[in-house]
Task: structure prediction
Amino acid sequence: MNLAALTVEDILAAARALGRIDAAGGAPGRLDRAAARLLARMRIAEARRRGCGRPHPRFGDGTLGGAAALMADEAGGPPPDGLSMLRGAASICVALAAEVERTGGQAAASCP
Result:
């Protein structure tokens, strides 16, 4: 993950996407699983962009915002209210912190 490229807009896009999932309801832990999926998609897309010079056809351009926009489209459902947005923001921030601790903020360059 390229921390230098991470923006507040990326985090807000992820919060919106996850907020849609929260607003739709579901089992406990759904946001944490969705945040992990979102970061996995971002990693795959980033590796493709770094390795091949082009975006991933399903997961975007390797940015958190790009992956979040595609996930929000998939999630459908109602737009998130304030509480759902906060839950989404909290979930993505915790997932990002865990990702940075795990990887040291480094990403592998390959072309999946």
